[in-house]
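Q: what sequence does this backbone want?
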């Protein structure tokens, strides 16, 4: 139980960092400057990733296989777009900023997870 909780906190931290960097460096992505709102947004993103991502991956596995995994970026963008839709804290204007933010958050998550696994 403790290991799951610590991993969940780590994922929220990685998503917080990814959202912050996306809001800071990607034009078209704007976030609230309140750190509490950013952490709450990262919690919601983490929960969406834990619940919705596996369902979408199973439903869309033929597209993921045909595109050699690149469709996973679209799945991440759909989840981030849903976060934009349900939250007033983040505003993403356009498809290109949405895709770029999904890629950046994915890279940050991958780097953080590799850092965690290297210990």
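A:
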């Amino acid at each position: 139980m403790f290991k799951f909780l610590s991993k969940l906190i780590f994922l929220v931290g990685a998503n917080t960092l990814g959202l912050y960097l996306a809001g800071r460096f990607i034009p078209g992505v704007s976030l609230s400057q309140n750190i509490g709102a950013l952490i709450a947004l990262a919690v919601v993103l983490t929960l969406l990733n834990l619940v919705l991502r596996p369902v979408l991956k199973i439903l869309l596995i033929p597209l993921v296989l045909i595109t050699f995994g690149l469709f996973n970026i679209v799945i991440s963008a759909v989840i981030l777009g849903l976060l934009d839709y349900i939250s007033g804290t983040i505003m993403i204007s356009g498809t290109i900023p949405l895709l770029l933010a999904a890629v950046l958050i994915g890279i940050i998550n991958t780097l953080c997870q590799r850092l965690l696994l290297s210990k």
